[in-house]
Amino acid sequence: MADTIYVLNGPNLNLLGTRQPETYGHTTLADVEQLCREAGKRFALAVEFRQSNHEGAIVDWIQEAARDKALGIVINPAGYTTTSVAILDAILAVKIPVIEVHISNIHARESFRQHSYVSRAARAVICGFGIEGYALAIVGLAAMVGATAKS
Ligand code: CA2
Fold first, then answer.
1. What Å distances lie between residue 13 and 1, 18, 38, 55, 123, CA to CA?
2. Domains present along the chain, CATH in parentheses
Protein backbone atom coordinates (compact mmCIF):
# COMPACT_ATOMS: atom_id res chain seq x y z
CA MET A 1 0.00 0.00 0.00
CA ALA A 2 1.21 3.52 -0.83
CA ASP A 3 2.39 5.79 1.94
CA THR A 4 -0.50 8.00 3.01
CA ILE A 5 -0.98 11.56 4.18
CA TYR A 6 -4.20 12.98 5.59
CA VAL A 7 -5.60 16.34 4.45
CA LEU A 8 -8.20 17.52 6.97
CA ASN A 9 -10.58 20.44 6.50
CA GLY A 10 -12.64 22.11 9.18
CA PRO A 11 -16.05 23.72 9.34
CA ASN A 12 -17.67 25.52 6.41
CA LEU A 13 -14.89 24.65 3.96
CA ASN A 14 -17.50 22.53 2.16
CA LEU A 15 -18.86 25.94 1.02
CA LEU A 16 -15.64 26.90 -0.75
CA GLY A 17 -16.30 28.43 -4.15
CA THR A 18 -19.94 29.19 -3.39
CA ARG A 19 -19.59 32.28 -1.13
CA GLN A 20 -17.05 34.98 -0.18
CA PRO A 21 -14.94 34.51 -3.36
CA GLU A 22 -13.11 37.78 -2.58
CA THR A 23 -11.59 36.05 0.46
CA TYR A 24 -11.49 32.37 -0.47
CA GLY A 25 -11.53 32.37 -4.30
CA HIS A 26 -13.79 30.62 -6.77
CA THR A 27 -12.43 27.11 -6.48
CA THR A 28 -14.38 24.40 -4.70
CA LEU A 29 -13.30 21.86 -2.10
CA ALA A 30 -13.41 19.24 -4.87
CA ASP A 31 -10.80 21.34 -6.71
CA VAL A 32 -8.68 21.42 -3.54
CA GLU A 33 -8.97 17.64 -3.28
CA GLN A 34 -7.79 17.21 -6.87
CA LEU A 35 -4.88 19.60 -6.27
CA CYS A 36 -3.85 17.61 -3.19
CA ARG A 37 -4.08 14.27 -5.00
CA GLU A 38 -1.90 15.62 -7.82
CA ALA A 39 0.65 17.02 -5.34
CA GLY A 40 0.68 13.70 -3.45
CA LYS A 41 1.14 11.73 -6.67
CA ARG A 42 4.42 13.57 -7.36
CA PHE A 43 5.80 11.85 -4.25
CA ALA A 44 3.83 8.59 -4.64
CA LEU A 45 1.75 9.57 -1.61
CA ALA A 46 -1.89 8.53 -1.28
CA VAL A 47 -4.13 11.28 0.09
CA GLU A 48 -6.97 10.74 2.58
CA PHE A 49 -8.98 13.92 2.02
CA ARG A 50 -11.68 14.76 4.59
CA GLN A 51 -13.90 17.67 5.65
CA SER A 52 -16.14 17.99 8.68
CA ASN A 53 -18.16 20.66 10.43
CA HIS A 54 -17.71 18.74 13.70
CA GLU A 55 -14.78 19.17 16.07
CA GLY A 56 -14.88 15.60 17.38
CA ALA A 57 -14.71 14.13 13.88
CA ILE A 58 -11.50 16.07 13.27
CA VAL A 59 -10.07 14.83 16.59
CA ASP A 60 -10.99 11.25 15.58
CA TRP A 61 -9.28 11.63 12.19
CA ILE A 62 -6.05 12.98 13.75
CA GLN A 63 -5.98 9.91 16.01
CA GLU A 64 -6.84 7.65 13.05
CA ALA A 65 -4.01 9.09 10.96
CA ALA A 66 -1.48 8.30 13.68
CA ARG A 67 -2.97 4.85 14.44
CA ASP A 68 -2.90 3.91 10.74
CA LYS A 69 0.69 5.14 10.45
CA ALA A 70 0.08 7.99 8.02
CA LEU A 71 3.27 9.92 7.26
CA GLY A 72 1.71 13.22 8.30
CA ILE A 73 -1.27 15.54 8.28
CA VAL A 74 -2.08 18.76 6.44
CA ILE A 75 -4.90 20.54 8.27
CA ASN A 76 -6.97 23.64 7.65
CA PRO A 77 -8.83 23.81 10.97
CA ALA A 78 -10.90 26.78 9.69
CA GLY A 79 -13.03 28.25 12.51
CA TYR A 80 -11.62 25.75 15.04
CA THR A 81 -8.15 27.24 14.59
CA THR A 82 -8.82 29.91 17.18
CA THR A 83 -11.00 27.93 19.60
CA SER A 84 -10.09 24.27 19.74
CA VAL A 85 -7.96 23.05 22.61
CA ALA A 86 -9.30 19.58 21.71
CA ILE A 87 -7.69 19.69 18.25
CA LEU A 88 -4.48 21.12 19.78
CA ASP A 89 -4.41 18.25 22.31
CA ALA A 90 -5.03 15.68 19.56
CA ILE A 91 -2.07 17.02 17.57
CA LEU A 92 0.14 17.11 20.66
CA ALA A 93 -0.76 13.47 21.31
CA VAL A 94 0.44 12.21 17.92
CA LYS A 95 4.04 11.96 16.80
CA ILE A 96 3.49 12.46 13.06
CA PRO A 97 4.13 15.94 11.61
CA VAL A 98 1.18 18.28 11.19
CA ILE A 99 1.21 21.24 8.77
CA GLU A 100 -1.37 23.99 9.32
CA VAL A 101 -2.77 25.68 6.21
CA HIS A 102 -5.01 28.69 5.72
CA ILE A 103 -6.25 29.87 2.35
CA SER A 104 -6.31 33.52 3.40
CA ASN A 105 -3.58 35.49 5.16
CA ILE A 106 -5.07 35.29 8.65
CA HIS A 107 -2.57 37.90 9.90
CA ALA A 108 -4.01 40.54 7.56
CA ARG A 109 -7.55 39.89 8.83
CA GLU A 110 -9.52 40.47 12.03
CA SER A 111 -7.44 40.13 15.20
CA PHE A 112 -9.55 37.19 16.46
CA ARG A 113 -8.29 35.11 13.50
CA GLN A 114 -4.66 35.71 14.36
CA HIS A 115 -4.29 33.50 17.41
CA SER A 116 -4.08 29.84 16.47
CA TYR A 117 -4.11 27.06 19.09
CA VAL A 118 -3.08 24.65 16.33
CA SER A 119 0.12 26.61 15.56
CA ARG A 120 1.50 25.66 19.00
CA ALA A 121 1.69 22.04 17.84
CA ALA A 122 2.05 22.39 14.06
CA ARG A 123 5.47 21.72 12.57
CA ALA A 124 4.87 24.48 9.99
CA VAL A 125 2.21 26.99 9.03
CA ILE A 126 1.29 28.26 5.56
CA CYS A 127 -1.23 31.02 4.91
CA GLY A 128 -2.18 33.52 2.23
CA PHE A 129 -1.36 31.48 -0.88
CA GLY A 130 -4.97 30.62 -1.64
CA ILE A 131 -5.62 26.94 -2.25
CA GLU A 132 -2.05 26.58 -3.62
CA GLY A 133 -1.05 26.56 0.06
CA TYR A 134 -2.30 22.98 0.29
CA ALA A 135 0.10 21.88 -2.49
CA LEU A 136 2.95 23.81 -0.83
CA ALA A 137 2.15 22.08 2.46
CA ILE A 138 2.27 18.66 0.80
CA VAL A 139 5.64 19.43 -0.82
CA GLY A 140 6.97 20.62 2.55
CA LEU A 141 5.56 17.62 4.38
CA ALA A 142 7.07 15.26 1.78
CA ALA A 143 10.49 16.85 2.37
CA MET A 144 10.02 16.58 6.14
CA VAL A 145 9.33 12.85 6.00
CA GLY A 146 11.96 12.12 3.34
CA ALA A 147 9.55 11.30 0.49
CA THR A 148 11.27 11.97 -2.83
CA ALA A 149 9.71 13.16 -6.07
CA LYS A 150 8.99 10.38 -8.57
CA SER A 151 9.64 10.97 -12.26
O1 CA2 B 1 -8.19 31.16 5.41
C2 CA2 B 1 -8.55 30.06 5.82
O3 CA2 B 1 -8.30 29.00 5.24
C4 CA2 B 1 -9.40 29.97 7.10
O5 CA2 B 1 -8.97 28.83 7.82
C6 CA2 B 1 -10.83 29.81 6.65
C7 CA2 B 1 -11.83 29.82 7.81
C8 CA2 B 1 -11.60 31.01 8.73
O9 CA2 B 1 -12.43 30.88 9.89
C10 CA2 B 1 -10.15 31.12 9.18
O11 CA2 B 1 -10.00 32.29 9.97
C12 CA2 B 1 -9.22 31.19 7.98
C13 CA2 B 1 -13.24 29.87 7.29
C14 CA2 B 1 -13.61 28.70 6.45
C15 CA2 B 1 -14.98 28.94 5.88
O16 CA2 B 1 -14.86 28.84 4.48
C17 CA2 B 1 -15.84 29.37 3.70
C18 CA2 B 1 -15.61 29.31 2.36
C19 CA2 B 1 -16.52 29.85 1.50
C20 CA2 B 1 -17.69 30.42 1.99
C21 CA2 B 1 -17.92 30.45 3.33
C22 CA2 B 1 -16.99 29.93 4.19
1. 29, 10, 20, 13, 22
2. 4-145 (3.40.50.9100)
